[in-house]
Amino acid sequence: EGILKSDNFVMRSPVLNAIANGSIDIPQKHLDFTLFAQPYGTIDSLVSIVPILGYIITGENKSVMSYPFEVKGTFSDPDVRYAPFETMEGGVPGILKRILLTPMRLLEKIRRTLRNNGDKKEK
Prior knowledge:
Layout: E1 3-12, E2 16-25, E3 30-39, H1 42-48, H2 53-58, E4 67-74, E5 78-82, H3 92-122
Antiparallel strand pairs: 1-2, 2-3, 3-4, 4-5
């Protein structure tokens, strides 16, 4: 029907990463999505590689800083607004959530590794 939707569209580049959630209606030429711009920085790359702690601080996107924008309107005249409250999960609540969920995440990785090693031994 000409409508593109994504919950996790990612564009990576050496300078910045862009992540978008939302939809684009091509026949109506209408945009409605949230765009997160993550400037690539040395601090992100250094912090994200620290085991366990790096994940807690940076999250799945491996970025400390993220700038959210709401993009709505037509292709020819989109309304782009900075949306600081979209990063609430990336702040203290996001860090607390990752602290609480990290033990389950580690157990899942261990279980997956053990299962994969068992599959390799059978071959």
